[in-house]
């Protein structure tokens, strides 16, 4: 199964309301960066053990680890979870950047060092979310 089929299968597996929100976000991200690289992680490690929620990834970034190693990864991640939806903004060097710049404007969301979590898409300011995504995908 190719990445686009995996993404579609994942979105279709979500409960209806969450499915609608994730599908809308997926389409918005593709409008922002139609030629970006797409990724899909099913949440399993090399041994097949579930270690995270499935993620849709967009763009490309180099993730650097403390030990000096690095690997290719996505710039923006999208994941549904039990409490809502998470948008991951990867590769940020300042863990306060998202909250300092966007925290007060994003709406009803929890903003951490690299993650924006919200219950429903209607809870956040979509224009601000699009701005964050566009900025990150322009810099990847």
Please, could you describe this protein's structure?
This protein has 140 residues and is of the alpha+beta class. It has a single domain (3-139), classed as Aspartate Aminotransferase, domain 1. The chain has 4 helices and 8 strands. The strands form 2 sheets. Strands 1-2-5-6-8-7 form a 6-stranded antiparallel sheet. Strand 7 and strand 8 (115-118) form a beta hairpin.
List keywords for this structure.
140 residues, alpha+beta, Aspartate Aminotransferase, domain 1, two-stranded antiparallel ribbon, 4 helices, 8 strands, 24% strand, globular
Number of strands: 8
Main sheet?
6 strands, antiparallel
How many DSSP H or I helices?
4
Q: What letter string, H or E per element, gives the SSE order? A: HHEEEEEEHEEH
Radius of gyration: 15 Å
Terminal-residue CA separation: 26 Å
- The global form is globular
Mean pLDDT: 94
Q: Please tell me the total number of domains.
A: 1
Classified by CATH, the class is: Alpha Beta
Structural class: alpha+beta
Lateral strand order in the biggest sheet:
1-2-5-6-8-7
Report helical residue fraction. Answer: 25-40%
Q: State the low-pLDDT regions, or none.
A: none
- Which fold name fills CATH's third level, the topology? Aspartate Aminotransferase, domain 1
